[in-house]
Design brief:
The chain is α/β, with parallel strands linked by helices. It has two domains: 9-290 and 409-416, TIM Barrel (Alpha-Beta Barrel); 292-402, no CATH class. The protein contains 17 helices and eight strands. The chain has an eight-stranded parallel beta barrel, surrounded by five helices. The protein starts with 8 loop residues before the first strand and ends with a helix. It binds zinc ion. Zinc ion is lined by residues 82, 180, 182-183, 260.
């Protein structure tokens, strides 16, 4: 049986309340109609499921229903996002894409004998590597390889263990395997990535995508904070390293980078687009459930009861901001002094609410602090339960228009379309 493969371009979308799979898919259909095939991957992390009280099987049902309703004949996937051995169980049946998160094990010292064996299996890594396409050689030495092994080998061995656990249950070649190292403190350099890929190949993991941590901050729902030039170099060098490692270590030919973007890294999109066009490389780009913010925008835009509910959600999120932000502390940057008081928001018109929330870089009314707070505020809507769902249903058309347009115009087109 042939191995399940991720197409060259794939895009991870979140759908926290499992109501927007159809408009999300329509954005991909619009891209396909324009000749750009992008596979949608519905991703939802264990953290989100836990906060909402939902189950991966519901995400599967919503995706399948949208695919059937819209007659989508191309590949699509369901991502068990950031799972490990303790959380993977309920994802095994509904998911066919597994993001194995080993960030917690990064930095746990490796078995010294295993680190030495890695260096001995790969004498080529014990000297500077001059790869075609790299401006500078990768600064590798036997000492560096041992140090990198000490930092990452335990995590890679753990990834192998999780991979084999999934394989035993799902069957070889029946799912996409990603390893994520993004939720850690230090970015991985291209030299580290090369050693990591050699070790992953040795561990027998048929890797489809790898998500390194890049320099700069990837806060949820807002633009990149960092040096775009540095990102450009890192991304480019990582693409070179991946292409080389595929040939050198026998990793799957379609191995590609996965960027856990946290959504809306608009200033990086032209860089990604340029690199894909120049190299012909593939890309998986994961977003972070900002579709939920499009639901709020749609509710506010609808006015009436929809707007009232959107205001109430903000007021409660404001009251509970400490507690809502805590699980996301490392991936948000909210200046609480710049959050409007609920009494002010209470008087807003639909246009004022949507202008504050909608991510239009440079727009005077756009408030990234409010946007980030609402981004992590989905727990409030989850607690409203039926009241929230009722408003989603009552204002479905306006919301769908926002979800589809946001995804297509502000993400898919700038990243994947060549001008
Ligand atoms: Zn991630």
């Amino acid at each position: 049986m042939s191995r399940l493969q991720l197409p060259r371009f794939s895009f991870g979308v979140g759908d926290r309340f499992a109501h927007q799979a159809a408009p999300q898919l329509r954005a991909c259909q619009r891209a396909a109609a324009a000749g750009v095939n992008i596979a949608p991957v519905w991703n939802k992390s264990n953290r989100e499921h836990a906060i909402i009280g939902s189950a991966p099987s519901e995400t599967r049902a919503a995706a399948d229903a949208a695919v059937a309703a819209l007659g989508w004949k191309q590949p699509y996937f369901l991502d068990a996002d950031h799972i490990n051995l303790t959380t993977v169980e309920r994802y095994l049946a509904p998911c066919d894409f597994f993001t194995i998160d080993v960030a917690e094990t990064i930095g746990k010292p490796a078995n010294p004998a295993a680190a030495r064996e890695l260096a001995e299996r790969h004498p080529e890594l014990s000297r500077e590597q001059r790869l075609p396409g790299l401006e500078r050689p990768l600064p590798l030495s036997r000492e560096r390889v041992l140090a990198i092994a000490n930092q990452y080998l335990a995590a890679i061995e753990q990834a192998g263990q999780i991979y084999r656990h999934i394989e035993a249950r799902k069957g070889r070649g029946r799912f996409i395997t990603e390893i994520s190292m993004d939720e850690t403190d230090a970015p991985q350099t291209p030299a580290e990535l090369l050693v990591i890929l050699a070790a992953v190949a040795d561990a027998g993991v048929p890797l489809a995508t790898i998500a390194p941590k890049f320099s700069g901050r990837f806060n949820k729902g807002v633009d990149y904070v960092g040096d775009p030039e540095q990102f450009r170099r890192e991304f480019h060098d990582d693409l070179v390293v991946i292409a080389y490692a595929v040939g050198q270590y026998g990793l799957p030919e379609d191995l590609k980078l996965s960027v856990h973007s946290g959504s809306d890294k608009f200033s990086l999109y032209p860089i990604l687009n340029g690199a894909l066009r120049e190299t012909g490389a593939g890309l998986h780009l994961k977003t972070a459930g900002t579709t939920w913010l499009e639901e709020l925008i749609g509710l506010a835009e609808s006015g009436g009861a929809g707007l009232e509910l959107a205001k109430e959600i903000y007021a409660r999120a404001y009251q509970e901001r400490e507690h809502l932000c805590a699980p996301y502390a490392s991936v948000i940057a909210i200046d609480h002094a710049r959050l409007p008081l609920p009494a002010v928001v209470e008087r807003w018109t639909p246009a004022e609410y949507t202008a504050a929330l909608r991510h239009v870089p440079g727009a005077a009314a756009y408030n990234p602090h409010l946007r980030q707070l609402l981004h992590v505020g989905y727990k409030i809507a989850a607690q409203m339960g039926e009241r929230y769902r009722r408003q989603l249903a009552d204002n479905a058309a306006v919301i769908a228009r926002n979800v589809e347009a946001n995804l297509f115009e502000r993400h898919l087109r700038p990243i994947f379309f060549y001008a």
